Amino acid sequence: KALDSMGRRPVLLSGLAIFLFSVFGYYWMASVALVLALRFVHGIGWGIVTTTYGTIVSDIIPAERRGEGMGYFGMFTNLAMAVGPLIGLSVSQSFGYGWLFGISGGLTGVAMILTRMVEIKAPIGMTQPSAAAGGGLFEKKALFPALLALLTGVMYGGVVSFITLFGQEVGIENVGLYFLFNAISLMLVRPLAGKLFDKKGPFWVLMPGGVLTGIAVVVLSYSTTELGLIAAAILFGIGAGSVQPSLQAWTIQRVDPSRRGAATGTFFSAFDLGIGGGAMILGAIAKQT
């Protein structure tokens, strides 16, 4: 809602500032309680940044190419989420957590500088930010795509949270291969899925993408070799890589330009809730089995 009432740039810079403070703050945390408290603050920054970037991109992309544009945007977003853990593990193991937090903070600082350099315009149909101040925090028209995003987040959160432990349990040493091949498949499928969305609509992307994601989880659960792990990573990358940007494009397609901020916030809130809640729920289930 703040995006629609205050404008994109002030909200984005505020989110990046919170993000930057949190990343550097981890270095001085001396207890689990403090880490959890800072993690909460970090999550606020993350939620602001992801929502704002998604809204800005939806403002820029022409309506007739929204699926393709979201595909490219989602390609680089999920590429970072796939490669990030791999790089983070490598840096922390080789140089320590201090270097990890320093590099993360430096990248956040670069993002703040680039944000100041980018021209951000109000979307067509929304002349002044204050004109969009009405409405609630969440957009009702975005609830169904958000529900599907929540389910996607549950699967993604479960896999990312427990893939390392799963690899140790079944004897797969190089779990990093999962993130590598997942990232490659994401890069390849995003633009193609976006173009299909623009030509055929959401059904022709979401249905096969959802099926492939489910198959990937099943394949992963039975994998005991690196080959099985790679196969699951590719299938999951194709499936989730098709679903997530298509859901986001569909969300924007369903709402008025003046409510894009609220709609994007609804979408990402559901997706993030799925990631966090999914990890907790699936972890509890795994503990009982």
Describe this structure in words.
Residues 1-289 form the Major facilitator superfamily (MFS) profile domain. InterPro entries: MFS, MFS_dom, MFS_Exporter, MFS_trans_sf. Its main location: membrane. The chain crosses the membrane at residues 12-30, 36-57, 69-91, 97-118, 142-163, 175-193, 205-223, 229-250, 262-286. With 289 residues, the chain is mainly α. The chain has helices at 2-6, 8-25, 32-60, 66-95, 97-117, 143-170, 176-200, 203-221, 226-253, 260-288. It has one domain: Growth Hormone, Chain: A. The chain has 10 helices and no strands. The mean pLDDT is 84.
Q: What is the average per-residue confidence, as pLDDT, rounded to a whole number?
A: 84
CATH superfamily: MFS general substrate transporter like domains
* Whole-number total of structural domains: 1
CATH architecture designation:
Up-down Bundle
User: Measured on Cα atoms, how large is the radius of gyration?
Assistant: 19 Å
Helical stretch tally: 10
Poorly predicted parts: none
SSE order in H/E notation?
Answer: HHHHHHHHHH
Structural class: mainly alpha
Which CATH first-tier class would you pick?
Mainly Alpha
Silhouette: globular
What would you call the quaternary organization? single chain
End-to-end Cα distance: 42 Å
Structure summary, number of beta strands: 0
Strand content of the residues, in percent? under 5%
And the CATH topology? Growth Hormone, Chain: A
Q: Characterize the main sheet.
A: none
In helices, the fraction of residues equals over 70%
GO molecular function, one term: transmembrane transporter activity
Protein name: MFS transporter
Keywords: Membrane, Transmembrane, Transmembrane helix, Transport
Domain Major facilitator superfamily (MFS) profile: 1-289
